[in-house]
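In the laboratory, one determines a bound structure by crystallizing the protein with its ligand and collecting diffraction data. In a computational setting the workflow is compressed into a single prediction: the sequence and the ligand go in, and a structural description comes out. We illustrate the idea with zinc ion.
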Amino acid sequence: MTVTEETETPAVGSSTRRRVLVLNASREPLCVVSLRRAVSLVLTDKAVVLETDGSLLHSEWLSVPAPQVLALTRYVHVPYRGAVPPTRRTVLQRDEHRCAYCSGPADTVDHVLPRSRGGAHEWTNVVAACARCNHRKADHLLSEIGWQLRTTPRPPRRAVVLSALTRPHPTWKAYLAA
Ligand SMILES: [Zn+2]
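The predicted complex, in structure-token form:
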């Protein structure tokens, strides 16, 4: 079945328009899919529509509201923690762009146990840091300079990763915050 999208409705951020947020049956954010995939999930009763953008998609046989947020009808178990690697973007998102040391605006990533001293590049050893703190800390251990972390670094929730890797549509916000 071919589904075509109505063309006359200019939507918020056309680049984000054709992506649909999929929640698990538990309502936890799961992934982001193409509009085509989303419609197929709905038409096969694998998902229900929670939010639409108000426009309609037309096929030869029927019209369906263009979904923006779906929930799966059956829970799927997806092992995930740690599956997404820490990158500058995902780490800054997890730490809300706040420096782990001084709470100021952060735009760099610091290895708590420096790589030069055997520190691994993993979620529990990376934090957002401002350039100043990162530079001052250099290759020191926290104990050597009397610094402390504000929080213990952990793998992020899926919603945090989705926010970092996609440009969330405004209608997704409530679901990603849950
Ligand atoms: Zn700082």
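Residues 4-79+165-171 form one domain. Keep in mind that any predicted model is a hypothesis to be tested, not a measurement.
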